[in-house]
Amino acid sequence: MSTSSDLTCTSGYGVIVQYLNDGKRTCKEVEEFIRASTLKRSLDIFKLQTEHVSLSHLRVAHSMKEEVKKMEEFREKQKEARKKLEQHMEALHKHKSTQLKRTMESKRMYEQKCIDKEEAEQNVNRSSSGTKHMEKLCAKAQQAKVNAVEADRIYHQSVMSLAKIRDDWLKEHIKACEVFEKQAADRINFVRNTIWTHLNLLSQQCVSTDELNEEVRKSLEKCDIQEDIEHFVKLRRTGDKPPAPVLYENFYSGQRVPPKLPPPLIKACPSTHRAAGVQDEAYSVVHF
User: I need a labelling partner for 160 at 20 to 30 A (CA). Which of 55, 146, 166, 239 fits?
Assistant: First the structure.
């Protein structure tokens, strides 16, 4: 409601509509948050190996999708209800403004006709002309009086019509405020319960993940390193003989001789017990 004396003022109604728009935006933000969280959970499950995905994970992901769907349906339902009511209120505001404009115009006409009537009567009273001219002035004054009476009737009727329109608008405004208040209460309650449920699902997901982690830990306790290596060898073995060496073939004699490899170079370190600078004939240092 507005405290302004202007009948066309809708500032109070505008404040309510803005509050509802803010609430609608909040619903949309919560819906997007749950949708993003649900998508992340679905991707996490997709990345896991199939045998490692518990039924609890799948149930939680499904429940999250259901919450998103419910949120969207709730928001659309309120949107449709608000749309019809707001269109109705806008039509009433327009009708009220149009009638007020007509009423102000009829008032202006009424005041002008009253002024014309008074001027015509004054002309009759001030006139000292002959009978014929006096008759014209009296006829003009009489017509001005008739016009003033008619303008008064139209003005009064217009004011009564405006009063009825205002009364109808006021009743519909109160009804609209009651509906909007109910919508706001439903929205707050729904969003609160949705977030509460979503957080419970996240907690359930954490418990399920911890249980899955415990299963993995138990599996790791049974891990045998040597057994895993032997299993790999048996599974992927390609043979137990190395490739044969490439023999040297003499072009003239055709003799094939295995290649002789040079002795490996060994880097020896001086004994920590040998004094610095003392050399042993049997000791040599190979530098790389």
Answer: 146
Of 148, 165, 145, 146, the C-alpha closest to 103 is 165
Measured distance CA(135)–CA(142) in Å, rounded: 10
Phi-psi region of 42 (alpha: psi -120 to 50; beta: other; left: phi over 0): alpha
- Residue showing tokens 């009064």: 156
Burial class (CB in 10 A: 0-12, 13-18, 19+), 180: buried
With a cut of 70, say whether residue 100 has pLDDT above it.
yes
Half-sphere exposure in the Cβ direction for 109 (13 Å, CA): 16
Mean pLDDT across the stretch 75-91?
89
CA dist., res. 25 & res. 75, Å (int)? 10
Distance CA 284, CA 266 (A): 10
Can you give the pLDDT at residue 50? 47
Segments in the chain forming alpha helices (H): 11-47, 55-126, 131-221, 225-236
60 burial level (CB within 10 Å; 0-12, 13-18, 19+): buried
Q: Is 172 exposed, middle or buried (0-12, 13-18, 19+ CB in 10 A)?
A: middle
